[in-house]
Amino acid sequence: MSLKLFFAPGACSFVPHAMLEMADVAFEPAMVKLHKGEQRNPEYLALNPRGQVPVLVDDGEVITQIVAILLYLDEKMPLAGILPPAGVARSRALQKLVWMNNSVHPTFTHVFMPEKFTDDAEAQKAIRAFAVLRYREMLEEIEAMAEKAAPWMVGERPGALDAYALTLLRWGGYAGIDPTTLPATWGLVQRFAALPAVARAIERERLQLNVFKQ
Ligand SMILES: N[C@@H](CCC(=O)N[C@@H](CS)C(=O)NCC(=O)O)C(=O)O
């Protein structure tokens, strides 16, 4: 196993990044500067023609898509606690993970990059405004999950859902959502960020947890 993770600071790639640190496994972190367009360099597009992070490379095998990467890592490192090992607990965790990935995450893309959906400047403003409202509602759903956390999203062990919750709540700050107005999630995110392994990923990405500005 020779693992390399292509990630961008503050992007969704934080989820596998934090999990690799939690697994305490050797890996090579490779930073992709999205603001400089490095994801569209020919060498990167050869790796992932969609021009997105994260990308995991293991012994030359390229894997994209967060859920696929997490399932791959979980199979390789079952003791890391990325997902519950089996049964209903695993299915429920996957249910939430897939929802975060296929619904919450793309809603934020409508906030952050409305230009991906229309080149009409007025329509972009409308898309953004509507997506901010939807995003807030989705963060409220995550808040309800965090209220039941015991103490982590899936129970006794921190894992992928906590990392995704951190990423999505942090992005909320860019959507004008004050994280402290979602106190259960904000508490969970702060506890998760304080874990030494997670703190290493945060340090490498130089992340500020609360990016909300009045
Ligand atoms: N469905 C993909 C989404 C990946 C994605 O949206 N990545 C974003 C960062 S959060 C990206 O690389 N954006 C760069 C761009 O679109 O130019 C996954 O699960 O990996």
Please render the helix and strand layout as text.
Layout: E1 3-7, H1 14-23, E2 27-31, H2 42-47, E3 55-58, E4 61-64, H3 66-76, H4 87-112, H5 121-147, H6 160-174, H7 183-193, H8 196-205
Parallel strand pairs: 1-2
Antiparallel strand pairs: 1-3, 3-4
Helix pairs in contact: 1-3, 1-6, 1-8, 4-5, 4-6, 5-6, 5-7, 6-7
The structure holds glutathione.
What report would you give on this structure?
This protein has eight helices and four strands; from the N terminus they run βαβαββαααααα. With 214 residues, the protein is α+β, with helices and mostly antiparallel strands. Helices cover 54% and strands 8% of the residues. The chain folds into two domains: 3-80, 3-Layer(aba) Sandwich (Glutaredoxin), CATH 3.40.30; 87-195, Glutathione S-transferase Yfyf (Class Pi), Chain A, domain 2. The protein has a four-stranded mixed β-sheet with strand order 2-1-3-4, with helices on one face. The protein has helices spanning 14-23, 42-47, 66-76, 87-112, 121-147, 160-174, 183-193, 196-205, and strands spanning 3-7, 27-31, 55-58, 61-64. The relative contact order is 0.14. α4 packs antiparallel against α5 (121-147), α5 (121-147) crosses α6 (160-174) and α6 (160-174) packs across α7. The mean pLDDT is 97. The structure holds glutathione (GSH). Glutathione is lined by residues 11-12, 34, 39, 51-54, 65-66, 101. Residues 11-12, 34, 39, 51-54, 65-66, 101 line the site of glutathione.
